[in-house]
Amino acid sequence: MGTYRFKAGRFESLDKGVVTERPLTILVNGQELATMMSTPVKLDCLVVGFLSFEGIIRDLADITSLEIHEEMGLAEVTLARPFTPPVRRIFTSGCSGGITFSLALQPYLPLLSEEVLKPEQVYPLMRQLFEACTLYMATRGVHGAALSDGEKLLITAEDVGRHNALDKIMGEALLQQIPTRGRILLSTGRISSEMLRKGAHMGTPFIISRTSPTSLAIEGAKQLGITLIGYARGDGFNLYTHPERILYTPAAEPTPAR
């Protein structure tokens, strides 16, 4: 049976793509770590990024082998050291049921970087994100994310889960040896506290989203020195934390007519 859209009192055939969603089980040293629902694109990046965010690896040197069996929904990772799976699992607010093993912000020191951003840079960066996220534009059923240097996008990723998209960004950065510290993190999804923690892990002083941050994300951004921008749409956005990083010159007031 095909897909149909009901509009103006009648059904019509709808020719639109549907997002692929599949489970991926991660085995580390032969032991199951987690199973997550994901879009089967850049799965190696997803796995490496997830392991990095969760503190299971420090860098690529900790991994001796990584095999992705997409048809089986399986990722096999071998570490260069013994591994004991974490006992505590936290199901986050992520799409498709995100998983993490810690919500602590304490490991991360406040970012003291001197990077600044002009308000006029925000919209062009978000526009680049939407242009790069072809699956998002075609289906509106995934989230997109990107790492930027303020002028261009360095890495882009899409996934049914907004957390997974950031995992893919982190993983690709490690695999391609692209520094994340001091960069700008862009997302189409809501910035929750665990999303903010991923930004802190990457050392990104700016996190920009098309939609809203949560109260815990705002509090965390204040503590960690991260400039948090939400509702970046058109030529406007909301600025929640650390406005000192925004290089702003007020527009001149119009001269009143005589």
Radius of gyration using CA atoms only: 20 Å
Q: Which residues sit in consecutive blocks of at least 5 with pLDDT less than 50?
A: none
CATH architectural designation of the largest domain = 3-Layer(aba) Sandwich
Largest sheet: 6 strands, mixed
Structural notes for this entry:
26% of the residues lie in helices and 28% in strands. It has 2 domains: 22-100, Roll (Ubiquitin-like (UB roll)); 119-245, Cytidine Deaminase, domain 2 (3-Layer(aba) Sandwich), CATH 3.40.140. Strands 10-9-11-12-13-14 form a 6-stranded mixed β-sheet, with helices on both faces. A 4-stranded mixed β-sheet has the order 4-3-6-5, with helices on one face. Strands 1-2 form a two-stranded antiparallel ribbon. It contains 6 helices and 14 strands. By secondary structure, the chain is of the alpha+beta class. It has helices at 43-53, 119-132, 134-139, 162-176, 193-202, 215-224, and strands at residues 4-7, 10-13, 22-28, 31-38, 63-69, 74-79, 90-91, 99-100, 143-148, 153-159, 184-187, 206-209, 227-233, 236-239.
What brief labels describe this structure?
Ubiquitin-like (UB roll); alpha+beta; globular; single chain; 258 residues; Cytidine Deaminase, domain 2; 6 helices; six-stranded mixed sheet; 28% strand; four-stranded mixed sheet
Structural topology:
Blueprint: E1 4-7, E2 10-13, E3 22-28, E4 31-38, H1 43-53, E5 63-69, E6 74-79, E7 90-91, E8 99-100, H2 119-132, H3 134-139, E9 143-148, E10 153-159, H4 162-176, E11 184-187, H5 193-202, E12 206-209, H6 215-224, E13 227-233, E14 236-239
Parallel strand pairs: 3-6, 11-12, 12-13
Antiparallel strand pairs: 1-2, 3-4, 5-6, 7-8, 9-10, 9-11, 13-14
Helix pairs in contact: 1-4, 4-5, 5-6
